């Protein structure tokens, strides 16, 4: 890698680490520097990779999403607003004094324009990060460095989380009291489910990196078992052993969170990687190594935590029942905001005025990002969002079929598995609303859709007449 590529790669890993250890970057002092760093990195990285940008279905779908969210900020006459969005009348009358007394002639579709503007800015920043990261990882060394950096940050995060769990004093990282204190904190994250969401993405990337390097490893193709065992002590095998151990540590930390959604989502991601390993590996030995590693890792961390403990925890459905009641309480809002939405990032404002089964807490999130997006975006935002998901899925499928190295394919597959796992967790959680998790998720998307750089054509030295040319 050139010095510029190396600097951009280190900056990418540094911002991912900052977001994770700055308590998920949920505070302004955490996400403002993160956004500035992401935009600066994009400004430095994209001009150097102009050829990586090509207008496509994905680009068009992304533009439609941005336009739809921007439309929620366009002022409308109050009668038109009441016609397009019946729920706005209810919410604004209760939350906006100027609107309630008839002092406003116009108002945007969003019931809280400031919050929607923040959501739009965050989405734009993540788009810049995705494009920048996709440009950075076009070269194979940078791709491996970014994936390896995520594994390194994940291993450190896992060790800190396990240590804090054993010596928890009521404060994050032993010194920080969160603004909204929760009893289910883990590591630097206030909510253990969000820690698990971040970790499942890192684990999937780590397993992909590991499987790719195993596929390229020459030691596994040695003719005798003695040579294969001796190869484990070689310099070539050292990174594989280190990353394999790091993945196990991260898996232990994730299971120790006792996050049911995180554990289930990680199981889905690992099942995808296991199926890919069995399908892609042609050699019996490699299949045994890949499948055996996953099975033994899962079995080991479950046994360490206690299978009976996990089983009894999954039988406790109290929090799931609470979520179901919250989803039922959200249905009236969905019926009134189904067309244009209440405005991105406004669910907490909307639920201030709708009756709730549990009045002891004020929900700021729906604990189901699909339902929350339906309320906040309506068909106006959800239709282009679905188009964007389809476009990204098509791009990923096309990239997986392209010729590429074994390591690059597996790192890409690890990113895909992490994306699928996160899609499962978001059924009952809102991890993607945490900046650190969203940043790592978008990093996985960038890895999954990136276009590898074309290797420069090798110049063939002309051979003298009559020379004997041999090939090995």
Describe what this molecule looks like in 3D.
- The chain has 472 residues and is an all-alpha fold.
- It has one domain.
- The protein has 19 helices and 2 strands.
- Helix 1 runs parallel beside helix 8.
- The C terminus is likely disordered.
Largest sheet: 2 strands, antiparallel
Total of domains: 1
Determine the N-to-C terminus distance.
Answer: 28 Å
- Structural class, please? mainly alpha
**Mass-distribution shape:** globular
Task: Enumerate how many helices there are, as a single number.
Answer: 19
Low-confidence blocks of residues? 456-472
Q: What is the chain-wise order of helices and strands?
A: HHHEHHHEHHHHHHHHHHHHH
Beta percentage is under 5%
Indicate the radius of gyration in whole angstroms: 25 Å
Please report the total strand number as a whole number. Answer: 2
Helical fraction equals 55-70%
Mean pLDDT rating: 88
In spatial order, strands of the major sheet run: 1-2
Write a concise keyword list for the protein shown above.
472 residues, mainly alpha, globular
Fold blueprint:
Blueprint: H1 3-21, H2 28-45, H3 57-71, E1 75-77, H4 78-84, H5 86-95, H6 97-100, E2 106-108, H7 113-136, H8 140-166, H9 192-216, H10 225-231, H11 238-256, H12 260-280, H13 284-305, H14 307-315, H15 318-336, H16 347-350, H17 369-401, H18 406-425, H19 435-449
Antiparallel strand pairs: 1-2
């Amino acid at each position: 890698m050139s010095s510029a590529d190396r600097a951009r790669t280190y900056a990418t890993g540094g911002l991912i680490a900052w977001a994770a250890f700055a308590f998920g970057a949920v505070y302004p002092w955490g996400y403002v520097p993160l956004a500035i760093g992401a935009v600066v990195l994009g400004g430095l990285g994209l001009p150097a990779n102009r050829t990586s940008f090509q207008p496509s279905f994905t680009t068009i779908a992304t533009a439609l999403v941005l336009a739809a969210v921007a439309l929620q900020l366009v002022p409308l006459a109050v009668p038109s607003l009441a016609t397009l969005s019946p729920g706005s009348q209810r919410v604004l009358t209760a939350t906006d004094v100027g609107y309630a007394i008839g002092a406003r002639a116009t108002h945007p579709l969003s019931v809280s324009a400031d919050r929607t503007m923040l959501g739009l800015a965050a989405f734009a920043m993540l788009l810049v990060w995705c494009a920048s990261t996709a440009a950075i990882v076009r070269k194979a060394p940078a791709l491996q460095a970014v994936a390896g950096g995520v594994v390194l940050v994940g291993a450190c995060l896992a060790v800190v989380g396990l240590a804090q769990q054993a010596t928890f004093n009521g404060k994050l990282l032993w010194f920080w009291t969160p603004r909204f204190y929760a009893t289910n904190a883990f590591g630097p994250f206030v909510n253990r489910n969000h820690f698990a969401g971040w970790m499942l993405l890192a684990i999937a990337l780590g397993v992909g990196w590991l499987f790719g390097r195993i596929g390229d490893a020459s030691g596994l193709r040695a003719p005798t078992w003695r040579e294969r065992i001796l190869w484990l002590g070689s310099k070539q095998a050292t990174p594989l052993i280190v990353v394999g151990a790091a993945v196990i540590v991260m898996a232990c930390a994730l299971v120790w969170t006792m996050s049911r959604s995180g554990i289930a989502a990680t199981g889905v991601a690992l099942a995808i990687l296991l199926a890919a390993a069995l399908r892609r590996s042609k050699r019996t030995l490699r299949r045994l190594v890949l499948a055996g590693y996953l099975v033994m890792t899962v079995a080991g961390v479950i046994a360490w935590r206690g299978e009976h403990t996990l089983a009894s925890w999954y039988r406790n459905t109290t929090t799931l029942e609470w979520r179901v009641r919250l989803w039922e309480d959200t249905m009236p809002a969905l019926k009134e905001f189904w067309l244009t939405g209440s405005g991105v990032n406004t669910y907490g404002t909307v639920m201030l005025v709708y009756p709730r089964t549990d009045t002891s807490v004020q929900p700021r999130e729906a604990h189901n990002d699909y339902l929350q997006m339906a309320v906040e975006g309506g068909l106006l935002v959800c239709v282009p969002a679905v188009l964007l998901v389809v476009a990204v899925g098509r791009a990923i499928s096309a990239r997986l079929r392209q010729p590429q190295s074994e390591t690059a394919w597996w790192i890409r597959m690890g990113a895909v598995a992490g994306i699928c796992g996160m899609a499962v967790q978001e059924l009952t959680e809102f991890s993607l609303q945490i900046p650190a998790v969203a940043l790592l998720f978008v990093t996985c998307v960038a890895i999954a859709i990136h276009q590898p750089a074309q290797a420069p054509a090798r110049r063939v030295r002309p051979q003298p007449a009559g020379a004997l040319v041999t090939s090995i």
